[in-house]
Design brief:
Blueprint: E1 9-12, H1 17-20, E2 23-30, H2 43-50, E3 54-59, H3 76-90, E4 95-104, H4 106-113, E5 122-128, H5 134-139, H6 148-159, H7 165-172, H8 179-185, H9 196-207, H10 214-219, H11 241-247, E6 251-256, H12 262-272, E7 277-282, H13 306-322, E8 331-336, E9 341-345, E10 353-359, E11 366-369, H14 397-400, E12 404-407, E13 415-419, E14 422-429, E15 435-443, E16 449-458, E17 494-499, E18 503-507, E19 512-518, E20 534-537, E21 543-549
Parallel strand pairs: 2-3, 2-4, 4-5, 6-7, 7-8
Antiparallel strand pairs: 1-3, 8-9, 10-21, 11-20, 12-19, 13-18, 14-17, 14-20, 14-21, 15-16, 15-19
Helix pairs in contact: 6-7
């Protein structure tokens, strides 16, 4: 690179190359290793080369077999590297000069970040299940503190070869740090040549200087915090709306309804960015490997299958990387949970959406003692980043016994909720600070309770910005800025507005709509130290508003 840092790259070419002439390129940049030592190709490499593409896999600087150090995730230096690699690819004798970038999760972040470089060789991007807005949608939804991110950071340092991190990860996972664990964890694939393994060791010596982000992240509780040089906005693709829109690079964006809060990112991008976008919102876990439809049994496979999802990605690349087809206008294809039906729309919210509001109840106020053991379980939407297993929300009757619940009467007709549900609470707390969690649930005639979606808010962030925002249909405009934070006055009733993560779900005739309120989600979120232990809710002055498509 421009600063002398050596970046490890794999190049896989279709064979026989001479018969094909120059070929287009699919590129993926990762901080999860471009390959494991001993691997001689994967299903991914075979698929791309069989389809007539060169596949270029890149270890991000400071990770895998690449040299350099990491001062943050998705740093300016890291993203600049990818621009140089795009130029390098276009200069190769086998290259047509047309490159598409793709990837899931962090790799999807790198794919989208490349669009801000305005590189002429980049003709399409496919950021799958990625993090458009790290603060809102992943690390601190509602200003609360996600727990799994700290395991992710430990795993990332282990992948970087930082001394002691492999054993730290084993401890967090409850495993012994023995030779079996080390062998299972593996090593990054080295570059070719006799010096490959030695070069990995030399690169990992540089990785020892990688910044440990975890303690800095704990201090950055507000969206505008920059302590330790860590910025959640700088690492979010949503912060580069102007640059990415200017690139006019078409996007293919698959995402799952129950994959952390990433669906809100896909919808915000759709409303804010000018690029042509093909958004697909399915009933999937992070990465689309497993089913996450809460109405399905846990053993139901993902549909469309991972192979079918890959074919859709390939079709997109064939149109915009292999060929130069005109980009289509924006569109969203989405799945409705409980109805098991796909629809397509060119606007969001979909045409025909109306807001239906009702009070949570009436009469006197309700006092809820916060149960610190309340939880959505270990297979929740917030744990998908560390597992490809199914997201499972079992019957929540027992879980709801720890919560304050408000349940409506039996529905007289089917109701299709599509968009962002909003709950407004008239409430008081017994301490200045509190985290509030709100769940939207379906109650069947037999009493089964099915999770639909959720929202949360650290009450210091309750101020609602009165301005107009292009993605106001996706997010309640809390600023999450330190300057706007204001503690609650204990015992004083206030109005609090909480937006839930967008969804599309069918509540069937005879079923009931439930709102459940909690002050904790044990195992998924870090408890707020010194937080409120008691909520007082006035249900007669609290409402739920549902976006219903007629």
């Amino acid at each position: 690179m421009r600063d002398g840092t050596r970046i490890a790259v794999d190049v896989w070419l279709p064979q026989p190359l001479a018969a094909r002439g120059k070929v287009p390129t699919a590129m993926k940049a990762t901080r999860y290793w471009k390959g494991r030592a001993g691997d001689s190709g994967t299903a991914e490499t075979k698929r791309w080369t069989k389809a007539g593409y060169a596949l270029v896999l890149v270890d991000a600087r400071g990770s895998g077999a690449s040299f350099g150090t990491r001062t943050s995730e998705l740093s300016k230096a890291e993203v600049a590297d990818y621009g140089e690699i795009l130029d390098w690819i276009s200069a190769q004798p086998w290259s047509t000069g047309r490159v598409g970038t793709f990837g899931d999760s962090y790799d999807g972040d790198t794919a989208e970040m490349m669009a801000r470089l305005d590189n002429p060789h980049l003709t399409a991007i496919a950021p799958r299940f990625n993090d458009y807005e790290m603060y809102h949608d992943l690390i601190r939804p509602g200003g609360t503190e996600m727990a799994v991110i700290y395991r992710w950071l430990t795993a990332s340092r282990a992948l970087d070869g930082v001394d002691g991190a492999v054993c730290d990860l084993a401890e967090k996972l409850g495993k012994p740090c023995d030779d079996k664990w080390r062998a299972e964890f593996g090593k990054p694939r080295p570059v070719d040549g006799r010096q490959g393994s030695a070069l990995v060791k030399a690169a990992q010596r540089e990785h020892q200087s990688n910044v440990d982000i975890a303690p800095l992240l704990k201090k950055n509780s507000f969206r505008d915090d920059r302590q330790g040089g860590v910025s959640l906005t700088a690492g979010s693709t949503g912060s580069y709306q102007r640059e990415i829109s200017r690139s006019r690079v078409p996007m293919f964006v698959p995402v799952g309804w129950l994959d952390a809060g990433t669906v809100n990112g896909a919808l915000s991008r759709f409303l804010r960015f000018g690029n042509a976008q093909e958004v697909v919102i399915g009933p999937w876990t992070h990465g689309g490997e497993a089913d996450a439809n809460p109405f399905n049994s846990p053993d139901k496979p993902a549909a469309p299958s991972p192979a079918e999802q890959w074919k859709a990605l390939m079709d997109f690349f064939d149109r915009h990387v292999k060929a130069a087809s005109p980009a289509k206008a924006k569109r969203i294809t989405y799945y409705t949970l409980g109805e098991n039906r796909w629809r397509t729309t060119t606007v969001w919210p979909p045409s025909g959406t109306e807001t239906y509001s009702r009070k949570l109840g009436g009469g006197s106020t309700d006092v809820y003692k916060v149960d610190p053991k309340a939880s959505t379980g270990p297979a929740s939407r917030w744990n998908g980043n560390l597992t490809s297993e199914d997201i499972v929300y079992p019957d929540r009757r027992k879980a709801d016994s720890r919560l304050l619940t408000y349940t409506g009467g039996p529905l007289r007709r089917d109701v299709r909720v599509t968009g962002m549900p909003v709950v407004k609470l008239r409430m008081a707390v017994d301490k200045p600070h509190a985290d509030v969690r709100v769940y939207l649930e379906d109650v069947a005639p037999d009493g089964r309770v099915t999770y639909i979606t959720e929202g949360q808010l650290r009450l210091a962030n309750r101020r609602v910005d009165p301005g107009k925002y292009p993605d106001a249909a996706v997010r309640v405009p809390h600023s999450y800025a330190r300057k706007d934070a204001r503690p609650m006055s204990p015992g004083e009733m206030e109005d609090v507005t909480i937006g839930l993560v967008s969804t599309s779900a069918l509540f069937r005739e005879g079923h009931r709509v439930r709102i459940a309120i909690a002050g904790a989600d044990a195992g998924n979120f870090v408890p707020l130290k010194g937080g409120a232990t008691e909520f007082t809710i006035d249900p007669g002055r609290s409402t739920v508003s549902l976006p219903v498509v007629r």
